[in-house]
Amino acid sequence: MSRLPTVARLAPPAGAAALSTLRTQFTLVIFLLAFLPNLVLTLSARTATPSPALLAWMLLVAALCGVLGYLLSGALLRPLSRLQRELESGRLREVHDDDPAEIRALRLAFTQLLERLRTEQTRRNAFMATLVHDLKTPLIATGHLTQALVNLPLPEHERREVGQQIASETGRLLALVQQMADAHRFEREDVRVQTAPTDLRVLLSGVAARLAPQADARGVALSVHGAGHASVDASVLERAVTNLADNALRYAHSAVELHVTPEGLMVLDDGPGLQADLTDLAQPFNAQPTTIAGQQYTVGTAGLGLFITRRIAEAHGGELRYERRQPLNRLSPEPAVSPTPSPSAVSSPVELQALPVPSPVTPAQPTPAAPAYTALSIVLPEVLP
């Protein structure tokens, strides 16, 4: 958990400290507005009034103006003081009848801010709980496998299998740590990428080559389609596509397609699709569960991949889109064309009456539509052929 930066606060000058409150400033303004006209009138109407009496009168007027300024400033700032007390107590109440429009707007802004803070805190708590679970699972598995490798007299082939399982669990841990680092980097608003002209087909081919063993293990066909060039940060964009493709391989039934399109990059799979809004799922700290392929998951770290991909797309000036659509590499069937009858087949009316009545023809059944694919697209500002 990051600590808030410590800012050194300089002590204000002695004169500024005396005027550091709004009530003091309001009192001074009201005092001057009330006292200066009296002072001008008194000095302009000066006759034979003794100087001590005039001085006493001016002191009395000054005292009355000061008291008036203090009372009026308190009345003007009463709604603000009440709001301050409510914020300090942590219980922000409803709008009061005597609240001016500015205080009502300020109260609404504080209410929305506190609501966002509560939501963020809830998300972070859920994220930490899920993170601990996701880290603990491979660590426990690695510990058990290590104990078996050290304490049990395993044959050579079983030792190799245990070693491969340990390497797999270690890879899961490293991938989770990498996602955490990426989420921390891309959570900031001022994310910058180093763009250069890139062959998008080569980028997708590299992703497919690295994920080919995973696709083979799951029995899923992984293919690359299309071609194009764009000015992107190849390593960062490749990470985003890898997140989408890895997620697609996890839930696809039989096929995953990586496409270069005129709008950018697209990952399609024949899985069940997202069961919640993309905006809700693509959050690093989300406590809302989601259902995928009939199983319920707490988003937690599962939302990191989509969040990182969305922020990478936004850093390139684009966006992340989701839709259900037909696969791009599948052609629609050609419409059936009725054969044109030959001239010899045309008969006279008498011959037509002699012909047997044909049996009714059963209409052809419509061709079932291809199943809808899950399509997640990284839209880029410009894609060149």
TrEMBL record:
Pfam short name (any one): HATPase_c
Known EC number: 2.7.13.3
Places the protein is found: Cell membrane
Record's bilayer topology term: Multi-pass membrane protein
Keywords, ordered alphabetically: Cell membrane, Kinase, Membrane, Phosphoprotein, Transferase, Transmembrane, Transmembrane helix, Two-component regulatory system, Virulence
This protein's record includes keyword Signal: no
Enzyme class per UniProt: transferase
Annotated spans, Disordered: 324-348
SUPFAM superfamilies named among the record's database cross-references: ATPase domain of HSP90 chaperone/DNA topoisomerase II/histidine kinase, Homodimeric domain of signal transducing histidine kinase
SMART domains, per the entry: HATPase_c, HisKA
Catalysed reaction equations from the record: ATP + protein L-histidine = ADP + protein N-phospho-L-histidine
PROSITE patterns: HIS_KIN
UniProt GO molecular function: kinase activity
Name of the protein this chain belongs to: histidine kinase
Organism: Deinococcus hohokamensis
